[in-house]
Amino acid sequence: MKAQSHRFKANSQQALRDADLQAALGRAKSGFVDKRAKAIDALPEFEALRERGRQVRAHSLAYLDVYLERFSAQVEHSGGRVHWASDADEARRHIVDICQRQQARLVIKSKTMVGEEIAINEALEEAAIEVVETDLGEYIIQLAKEPPSHIIAPAVHKTRDQISSLFDRVHHQRQGQPTRAVPDLVDEARQVLRKKFRRADVGITGANFLIAEEGSALIVTNEGNADLCMSLPRVHIVLTSIDKLVPTLEDASTLVRLLGRSATGQPMTTYTTLVTGARRANDTAGPEEFHVVLLDNGRSQMLDGPFREMLHCIRCGACLNHCPVYSAIGGHAYGWVYPGPMGSVLTPHFIGLDKSKDLPHACTLNGRCEAVCPVKIPLPKLLRRLRAASFEQGLTQPVERSAVGLWGKLAQRPVAYRAATAGAHRILRVIQRLDWQRPPFLGAWTAHRSLPHASRETFVSTWHRQREKTHER
């Protein structure tokens, strides 16, 4: 897989110049947004459901230690085994060890973002084990040797022309064939993957939620590939993170109702599957062994800090779909597994703020992400906290630090502040009268947009005038 660069600004500029990417993003954007809006309009109690979902996530995290112990005990009772992984290295070792003990030659996977987080495909390939993605989008980007660009639509950045060319090159060793219709591409992938399903020794799936009272994993897909990954091979591994725990099946059903509507605009996804343990004596299908690998990877630290609410996330992707920044540059620009607003909060915690210092600033703070989040995560507030942390750690540019310091000094001196803003206001009006398209020191702004029109007066002047009118009444 191609390594991703953490240079967000350079990545963004490249994305804006990529015509194919811009065409793909343009086609995808309205579909997600419009379908979600229709699904929510059809459910009058959606806001009450959101509040209930927020309460479920908050309660689950408050008693996470209790529910993890209960879940583990129930998995063991059902004939499975739980493997605890404090970090990505430990999670990879658990999975590779399981596969090697089984002398596995082929592993099939359904989509799991935690798998991307720990780079499990690369670990299995280094152990000489073939691994095949079975979600169509993940299969496409695996062939292209690219990371996913969206958490629910991994290949959203690909056009149909690109996918046709990719299939022709990989499946048929030919190039230059005409672009094919979507159903033909789907059928072709299905024919290839069907052979992999039949030969697989181990199946790896993620889990949307883990249910403590049952020791069950709940998995939702629209293709049914996860059901085949968990039922056909002789070993099933659930790879997920500790924050996916909920107490009861009823709690999980609340979140499932939120997930489908927020992600794809569906009342429920096509396949919603519960898996509990290995095959029993009277079962006609299912794995002989059932394993759950539970990843921490910094989540326990987040539990005790001001970013705890980020662990409420149910990975629906709504914040990405409604984000003007993500919609303009796609997911690869963010440089790691989790893109968009949720990724801008999560990534600094997983790989370090020093490696992702630009991400908290990749936001207009318009608040749409918080407004559409099904569990009410205050993403703008969390991003502002990361910006403050970046400043405190000295990770911002010297020019930016000097500008903020100067603004801070001015803000403490009302007379000087009013004089400075009035002066800046006059300069901006002069620039507009002269129709100066590229004024000095503003090239980063004017390269892609026009300067905003100056108001007739400054904010302070407007505020004083409005206050005087209020007093006159």
TrEMBL record:
Q: Which domain of life is it from?
A: Bacteria
Keyword Iron-sulfur among record annotations: yes
Q: Name one GO molecular function term.
A: metal ion binding
Source organism:
Alkalilimnicola ehrlichii
**UniProt-listed NCBIfam families:** LutB/LldF family L-lactate oxidation iron-sulfur protein
Pfam families registered for this protein in UniProt:
Fer4_8, LUD_dom, LutB_C
Q: What is this protein called?
A: Iron-sulfur cluster-binding protein
> Mind giving the lineage of the organism this protein is from?
Bacteria, Pseudomonadati, Pseudomonadota, Gammaproteobacteria, Chromatiales
Gene Ontology annotations of biological process type: lactate metabolic process
Concerning InterPro entries, the annotation shows: 4Fe4S_Fe-S-bd, 4Fe4S_Fe_S_CS, FTHF_cligase-like_sf, Helical_ferredxn, LUD_dom, LutB/LldF, LutB_C, NagB/RpiA_transferase-like
Family matches, as SUPFAM superfamilies:
alpha-helical ferredoxin, NagB/RpiA/CoA transferase-like
Provide this UniProt record's keywords sorted from A to Z.
Answer: 4Fe-4S, Electron transport, Iron, Iron-sulfur, Metal-binding, Repeat, Transport
Q: List each copy of the 4Fe-4S ferredoxin-type domain by range.
A: 304-334
